[in-house]
Amino acid sequence: MNISMKVPPSRPVVLCLSGHDPSGGAGLQADIEALLAQGCHAAPTVTALTVQDTQNVRDFRVLDREWVLAQAQAVIADLPVSAVKLGMLGSVEMVDTVIELLLQLPGIPLVCDPVLRAGGGGALGQDDVGFALRERLLPLALIATPNLPEARLLAELPEGSADQCAARLLPHCRHLLITGGHGDENEIHNRLYLRDGSRHDFTCPRLPGSYHGSGCTLASALAGRLALGEELVSAVRSALDYTWRTLRDAEQPGQGQYVPRRLPLDFCG
């Protein structure tokens, strides 16, 4: 008797290039969990190792470019990549390494989360990484997702508003999502700036506390929605809604910031 097995369709693959956070709150673990929650398969490539906890970053080491190239190229040769998510790169050499990889994936949507500082203020890159990101990497991205402090660093506007930062950065990238939450306003304002000059505002209630890994969660969820074929504005809305829910349900496993709960408690894969 021939028994045929029904093979489920493959989940979209998202190639993630980011750092490893041993606390599990941010970095590649955040990417993996957020992408699982979207129904995607995460293919994580480690760009850097960090010494950090839920309070701050103490040190980091960027991996040799040959190791990063080997990891990512093994994935590219084997799996059908539907989207790419970038997180911590840490050095100008790693920016150039990622550009070399992206040239092998023409037409694949790229979500760039320009990770420059940890939530606790610790640096996650050399001082010249922001310039290299803005000038050489953002032009390859479908969308960049900086928070307002990161947008100010990229735009070189220490006191700039979101609108002022967007005006400086949009010539370098197609679309830009600047997230709020770093002031004391009662509502969080997240602003999506499109290359055609239009703007979409998304607001949500401020939640108490501070959070470790929220930016990684948002960017990965957005990459997942794009990998699933969702239109950009709708994908941004879906990713923001999902991220807010993970913060609402966050837990405090250590002595520092809250960690988003990206998967339901009964998740079994």
Concise synopsis of the structure shown:
This protein has 8 helices and 9 strands. It has 269 residues and is of the alpha/beta class.
Written overview of the protein:
It is an enzyme of class 2 (transferase). InterPro entries: HMP/HMP-P_kinase_dom, PM/HMP-P_kinase-1, Ribokinase-like. Residues 21-257 form the Pyridoxamine kinase/Phosphomethylpyrimidine kinase domain. This is hydroxymethylpyrimidine kinase. Pfam families: Phos_pyr_kin. Helices cover 35% and strands 21% of the residues. Helix 3 runs parallel beside helix 4 and helix 5 packs across helix 6 (162-169). It contains eight helices and nine strands. The protein is globular and about 45 Å long. The mean pLDDT is 91. It has a single domain (13-249), classed as UDP-N-acetylmuramoyl-L-alanine:D-glutamate ligase (3-Layer(aba) Sandwich), CATH 3.40.1190. The protein has helices spanning 27-38, 65-78, 92-102, 129-137, 148-155, 162-169, 214-227, 232-248, and strands spanning 13-20, 41-52, 57-62, 81-86, 110-112, 143-144, 175-178, 187-194, 199-205. The longest helix is centred in the C-terminal third of the chain and has 17 residues, at 232-248. Helix 3 links the parallel strand 4 and strand 5. It is an alpha/beta fold. The protein starts with 12 loop residues before the first strand and ends in a 21-residue tail after the last helix. A nine-stranded mixed β-sheet has the order 3-2-1-4-5-6-7-8-9, sandwiched between helices.
